[in-house]
Amino acid sequence: xxxxxxxxxxxxxxxxxxxxxxxxxxxxxxxxxxxxxxxxxxxxxxxxxxxxxxxxxxxxxxxxxxxxxxxxxxxxxxxxxxxxxxxxxxxxxxxxxxxxxxxxxxxxxxxxxxxxxxxxxxxxxxxxxxxxxxxxxxxxxxxxxxxxxxxxxxxxxxxxxxxxxxxxxxxxxxxxxxxxxxxxxxxxxxxxxxxxxxxxxxxxxxxxxxxxxxxxxxxxxxxxxxxxxxxxxxxxxxxxxxxxxxxxxxxxxxxxxxxxxxxxxxxxxxxxxxxxxxxxxxxxxxxxxxxxxxxxxxxxxxxxxxxxxxxxxxxxxxxxxxxxxxxxxxxxxxxxxxxxxxxxxxxxxx
Length: 350
Prior knowledge:
Blueprint (H helix, E strand, L loop, with lengths): L10 H8 L14 H5 L2 H11 L4 H11 L4 H5 L4 H11 L2 H11 L3 H6 L3 H11 L2 H11 L3 H6 L10 H8 L15 H5 L4 H11 L2 H12 L2 H5 L4 H11 L2 H9 L5 H5 L4 H11 L2 H12 L4 H10 L3 H11 L2 H19 L5 H8 L2
Pfam family, one: PUF
Organism: Collybiopsis luxurians FD-317 M1
GO molecular function: mRNA 3'-UTR binding
């Protein structure tokens, strides 16, 4: 196969790239907006100028792009940023027209590496009626969109953006999460969508989702992605949901403290649990038999030592004193070991 030829730059673009002394304005590149938008340096120039451009200048840029070249630029590595700037700084009419040109292509754009960024920017900038049209186009593809890697570019999926920005009454697709919560919670992108749902949607929509999480709470704590959902519920969830998740740690704290993923949930629980629940968790460490052996084991463990530090940091005064009295005799033992980093952290937290 022959290598693909690189499109020739116009003399104007060549001059722009080489003549750094000239004070360039948007009017200087009239008739070349599309070409400049597809060039790394030209795109950056147009983006900067659009931020302070007059209404007339914005319209001239808009007219060269819409309608013939809009879909091309939306999917271009550099052109997509120009379209995003038009959504940010254009008039409401221009934003609406841009969104209109995208209609019928939302699903395809949401899967495309650069198009998904423009879809998300559009959701932020357009009126509710057009947001609803985007929702309707994506409704048949919700799960596919969540699981598609490009639809979730930079951890900000199109679906996440809809959940964050669109009125809940327009988000009928959330009912499709029911029956799929465990799968979503254990998926690299799905877990983020769930967190945004719990953060932005009303209780009537999220309560059934939380109920599904309860059925496998312990497994989710130890899951690579599910632990983030559990952490989120502990930190920002409804009090009753937080209480339930924390309660599942009772009797399991030491086991989970040594787990790569579940240890993060333990730390969050010690920080955000209600005082009575926190006391119970800390008591689990203090009252263990033999307690000094457990303390030393936690201090030596790559993950549990951070849980122990959290226990010291967030415990009530009396419990903190008891923990320190258990930890202090073990510090000298750990200081003699080659890998005594955990003892240093614990010594500083006393």
